[in-house]
Specification:
- This protein is mainly α.
- The chain is 60% helix and 1% strand.
- It is built from 12 helices and 2 strands, in the order H-H-H-H-H-H-H-H-H-E-E-H-H-H.
- The protein has helices spanning 5-13, 19-31, 36-49, 52-72, 76-93, 98-114, 119-134, 162-190, 200-283, 353-366, 372-380, 414-426, and strands at 296-297, 303-304.
- A two-stranded antiparallel sheet has the order 1-2.
- Strand 1 and strand 2 (303-304) form a beta hairpin.
- Helix 2 packs across helix 4 (52-72), helix 3 (36-49) packs antiparallel against helix 4 and helix 8 (162-190) runs antiparallel to helix 9 (200-283).
- The termini are far apart.
């Protein structure tokens, strides 16, 4: 079927909600992509003239055509639908049931996820739906959880004035793209040297149409330039604000760095003073502190270490001197004070006891004022260690050849010898 306005209207009127019908109409429309602008215009008129359910089917056709064009990298219908798509979606959304509105939101969300249209066109469509939802209660706002991945975050207030400017730029850019493409296509057709020149009346009509298209493209480009100038002015204002804040923050940062250095220096001084105080306390003499004193603070608030007790004086380990042989608690026998010091130590063994005793008492007798009987009585009462008495025995017992043929007491003092003889004779 040849492409005519009636053919397009007939195809769109026969559309139903089945997938085959939607795909069939979309393929026929794409086949005549040279007439994309005219098809888009007729499609928008059909949406305005149709009922609620029919509008949803027409949106499905535009969705199929747009996605197929994006996949095949054919921009004819993307450029044709971009200027009118926001109005078409708003018309289909307005007055529709909740079920239809949910389906329309789902289609718009798919366009965002797959980036079918430019960001400005996408934001314009969502903005129109959001404005319609504001008039109804209990509806989610678009641009939040529905079309922005569930974040629900609004734009910062500082860039809020830029939002309408950006939307205006996106809309002007879409109009410029469409108008420029149409004007350039018609211009190339008329000035194509290969084609034969038509008759003058037809040629004049085509030139008039080209002038109109060029005028439309010129106006669209002018609007786009104006919108971009407004956006750039808003951006400059935000830029100047941020530059002034940046200078103030840099100055504040330098001040914080300086203050941080001062505090760190003071902290080191305090720590050094604490270490010096502890060192001086440890180096002070031990006698200056009382033993057992606990840690405390002095009058300056500085911590002082406890004083250690004095170390005890340890006596050198020296063995005691050898004592002379003197029986414990021996009687002095009336000796003079210096007499005992002149006594020769006697033998300890039992074999030499008599000789030792004789020598002791002979010396004692010479320095004593006692009579032989008194001295003898003292000697008789002397006991040996263990409570025994000295055993008497003859001088020659066990001493063969000792004093043989001689008087054993010849060398003794006469008094001592007499005393010993009297004792021997008496026993």
């Amino acid at each position: 079927m040849a492409y005519t306005d009636d053919a397009v209207k007939a195809r769109l009127s026969a559309l139903n909600e089945s997938q085959d019908s939607i795909v069939g109409v979309a393929q026929w429309v794409m086949f005549h992509r040279r007439h994309a602008d005219r098809t888009a215009t007729l499609w928008l008129e059909k949406i305005k003239d149709s009922g609620v359910n029919k509008r949803l089917n027409l949106i499905y056709v535009a969705n199929e055509v747009a996605q197929q064009s994006k996949a095949r990298r054919k921009d004819d219908f993307l450029l044709a639908f971009s200027p009118i798509l926001a109005e078409a979606v708003a018309t289909a959304y307005r007055g529709a049931t909740n079920e239809v509105q949910e389906k329309l939101r789902r289609v718009v969300e798919v366009w965002r996820q797959r980036q079918i249209f430019e960001e400005g066109i996408q934001e314009t469509i969502e903005k129109r739906i959001e404005e319609l939802d504001k008039n109804r209660t209990g509806k989610r706002m678009l641009g939040g959880s529905l079309f922005s991945g569930g974040s629900g975050s609004a734009a910062p207030p500082e860039i809020a004035p830029l939002v309408p400017l950006q939307i205006a730029v996106a809309k002007a850019n879409a109009n410029t793209t469409t108008a420029s493409a149409t004007a350039n296509t018609e211009y190339e057709k008329i000035l194509d040297p290969i084609k034969s020149a038509p008759s003058p009346p037809v040629h004049a009509a085509r030139l008039s149409a080209l002038l109109k298209s060029l005028a439309n493209a010129e106006g669209a480009v002018s609007e786009s330039i104006k919108a971009r100038h407004a956006l750039i002015a808003g951006l400059k204002k935000i830029l100047e604000t941020n530059r002034s804040k940046l200078a103030a923050e840099e100055e504040q940062h330098a001040e914080m760095v300086e203050r941080k250095g001062i505090i760190e220096s003071r902290k080191r001084e305090v720590e050094d003073s604490i270490i010096r105080g502890i060192s001086s306390a440890e180096a002070s003499p031990a006698g200056q502190g009382s033993p057992g004193a606990e840690n405390g603070t002095n009058g300056n608030g500085r911590i002082t270490a406890s004083a250690e007790p004095d170390r005890p004086n340890v006596e050198a380990l020296t063995p005691p001197p050898m004592e002379t042989f003197t029986p414990t608690e021996s009687p002095t026998l009336g000796l003079k004070p210096d007499a005992a010091a002149n006594i020769e130590p006697g033998a300890n063994a039992s074999g030499g006891l008599e000789q030792g005793a004789a020598g002791v008492f002979a010396s004692a007798y010479q320095q004593s004022s006692l009579s032989p009987q008194q001295l003898y009585g003292g000697v008789a009462n002397l006991g040996l260690p263990g409570g025994g008495t000295a055993k008497k025995r003859k001088l020659d017992d066990g001493y063969e050849g000792f004093g043989a043929g001689e008087d054993a007491m010849a060398d003794l003092d006469e008094d001592v010898a007499e005393l010993l003889r009297a004792e021997s004779g008496g026993n």
